[in-house]
Amino acid sequence: MQILFPKTQMDFKEMIMKIFDQNRQIALCAAGTTVALLGLGVVYKYMRQEKKLTRVGVVTQLLVHPMKSGKVVSVETAECLRMGLKYGELRDRHWLVITEDGRMVTGRQQPRLVLVSLSCEGGQLCLNGPQMEELRVPLHQPSNAVVDCRVFSVDVQGRDCGDDVSDWLTRYLESDKAVRLVHFEPHLKAQRPSEKDPLYPKDEKVAYPDAAPIMLMSEASVRDLNSRLDSDVTVFQFRPSIVVSDCEAFTEDTWDHIQIGQVEMKRVVGCGRCLFTTVDPETGVITRKEPLNTLKNYRMTDPNQKTAPILGQYYTVKKTGVLHVGEPVYMITY
Description:
Layout: H1 9-47, E1 52-64, E2 73-75, E3 77-81, E4 84-87, E5 90-91, E6 95-99, E7 104-105, E8 117-121, E9 124-128, E10 135-138, E11 146-151, E12 154-160, H2 163-173, E13 179-183, E14 214-218, H3 219-226, E15 242-245, E16 257-260, E17 263-272, H4 292-298, E18 310-319, E19 321-324, E20 328-333
Parallel strand pairs: 14-15
Antiparallel strand pairs: 1-2, 1-15, 1-20, 3-4, 3-19, 4-5, 6-7, 6-13, 8-9, 9-10, 11-12, 12-13, 14-18, 16-17, 16-20, 17-18
């Protein structure tokens, strides 16, 4: 075997430099591999964190409010989607009464709206109210106009439900000015709650709720409130999506991450209560006093809601699924 030696000092230096460069590349590759393996180890350790479920209550009611401020629909089971509860064709707060210039109309201005029931049967939208004939119109009217409207300060859109519905609602409310009904469709502009409250994720979207897709409260919290009132109120006065029992009053304030069946939800903020709580859901009469005044005496508990008393909690849906009355509610910790 013939061994070749460098002929000059310059050749010798070049050979040494090549060897050094090769070794440096090997060292850098080794270091990179080590960092990558360490990173994978951290990710694996995080993914392997044990998920602990603590039972905190049980679902006693699932409540869908198809029309904002309209009559509640109580169901035994419902799909829990990113934008709220769904039961058949009914989706929570996906219909909205508006003025002709697009401003929302709610039970705060028209308390008798709480007596209007909206249902869907055989491809038809059905409206019923006291001393009113039932109205049926096609549920889907794709040729109707898309209307720009506002829920509080947030822009949103809806498909107009037609002149027959407008006439029916205007007569029922005995309004001097015409009102209209719009329906939210998936491709239309939705509300982004983060536009008015940075506590919400930026990708969160809802149709016509005040804020979040889900509002949860406990029966015990309402019982505690009733112990301070002259006349009892029910959970229907507060329009939650999910009602929970088998827990202490106001413990829902601490349930930051919950699971019901396969559904997972994260708490965002307490539900600040307003004048709408003083509308009786059975009569459509507004008192403008109770239970709001009593709540203000002892439930100014959330620094993020400085001017409103808290009853119930707003949640976003992190994992969708089907909910059933009777299912246990678990708090998730790691």
